[in-house]
C-alpha cells in the first residue's frame, strides 16, 4: 500500500531555561494506507511529541524546527508538508480533526466536563462538514453506536462524569471518528485502563480501522499492545528512530539492541503489573539535558563498543524495503554484504 504519511528527518525542540531540549531529533518513518503503525519506546523517547508534531499541536514554546511531514504524498495534487504549516493557520485547522484525528490517554484532554457528549460531537461535526443540526445529531448517534456505547440515543445527553473510564474512552474515539478521518493518531489510549477494558478498546480500534479503511498511528510503551494491533513498528529512543519493520519481523528477529531489550521486558501472562513492564532494561532513559554522545543508547547497551559507540552516531541502514536499523552492528553487516 502507498504511504498516506511520510515523515522525514523530523526535528521538534523545546527551548527551556536550562537549554534546548531536542525531543524529536531526526525521526523518519512512514504510514501506509489502511495500516496500523505502532511507535514504541519508553516514556521520554519522543513518541508523543512525534504524534503531536504531525498535527502541529506541540505544547508551546516547543515547535517543529526541521524536516518534512508529507501528508498524502502519492495523491495527484501536491502533497502538503504539515511541518511547514503555521500551527494556528487555516490549512492545519482544516486537516486537524477532519483528515487526521487524535485520541489521548486521558479522555478529558478532548472532552469537556460541562457539555454533553452528544453536543460536543455535533459541534465537531458541524465545524468540519456542511451537515445541518438534525443530520449532525443523527451522525452523532450513529458514531456513538459504532464505538459500542450501549443505548446511544440516551448517551447523547450524558456528561463525562456519568460514564465509566472505558465508556469515556469510547466517547472520545467517537468524537475523533465523527468526521471520518483518513488517519487516527492514538497516544497511549489504553494505558490508563484495566486489562479487560484495554483489550476491548484495542479490539474496537482494530474493528473501526478495518471498517473505515483508516490508517492508525498508535503510540505506546507496551510491546504487548504492539503485538496485538501493529502491522508495522517504529522503535524510538531519545528522539530518534532506531528500528522500523513489519511486526512479525520485529518480533521474530529484532536487530537493534534496544528493540531486543524492549521485547525481553514483555511480562509473561500473569505478571502484567504496571511499573514492572520495562524492569529488565538496564539503566533508565537519560534526562533531556544529558543526552549521551555517539549512539544515544550506548550507556545501556550490552553490545556497545568503547571507542566507537560512545563517539560516533550510527547511520540508519536499510535491511529491506521497509526495514531500517540505526546501529553499528547493522552498518557492519551491510558493509560486509
Ligand atoms: Fe549498541 Fe553501539 Fe548499536 Fe548503539 S550503535 S545500539 S551502542 S551496538
Ligand atoms: Mg507519551
Q: Give average pLDDT, whole number.
A: 92
CA-CA gap between termini:
28 Å
Output the number of helix runs.
Answer: 11
State the CATH architecture of the largest domain: 3-Layer(aba) Sandwich
Largest sheet: 8 strands, mixed
CATH homology group of the largest domain: P-loop containing nucleotide triphosphate hydrolases
Given as residue ranges, the uncertain stretches (5+ residues, pLDDT < 50) are: none
Q: Count the strands? A: 12
C-alpha-based Rg, rounded: 20 Å
The 3D shape can be described as globular
Structural class by helix and strand composition: alpha/beta
Bound molecules: iron/sulfur cluster, magnesium ion
With strands numbered from the N-terminus, the spatial order across the biggest sheet is 6-7-8-3-9-10-12-11
How many domain modules?
2
What string, H for helix and E for strand, traces the elements in order? EEEHEEHEHHHHEHEHEEHHEEH
Tell me the strand percentage band.
15-25%
Q: What is the name of the CATH class of the largest domain?
A: Alpha Beta
Q: The CATH topology of the largest domain is what?
A: Rossmann fold
Helix content: 25-40%
Task: Describe the protein in words.
The chain has 337 residues and is α/β, with parallel strands linked by helices. It folds into two domains: 3-99 and 181-336, Rossmann fold; 108-180, no CATH class. Helix content is 31%, strand content 24%. The protein is built from eleven helices and twelve strands. It has helices at residues 47-54, 90-95, 117-128, 133-146, 152-155, 165-177, 195-212, 223-229, 247-252, 257-264, 328-336; strands spanning 3-16, 19-32, 36-40, 63-71, 80-81, 100-103, 183-187, 215-220, 232-237, 240-246, 316-320, 323-326. It has an eight-stranded mixed β-sheet, sandwiched between helices. Strand 9 and strand 10 (240-246) form a beta hairpin. The radius of gyration is 20 Å and the shape is globular. Magnesium ion (MG) binds next to helix 1. The site of iron/sulfur cluster has 12 residues, from helix 11.
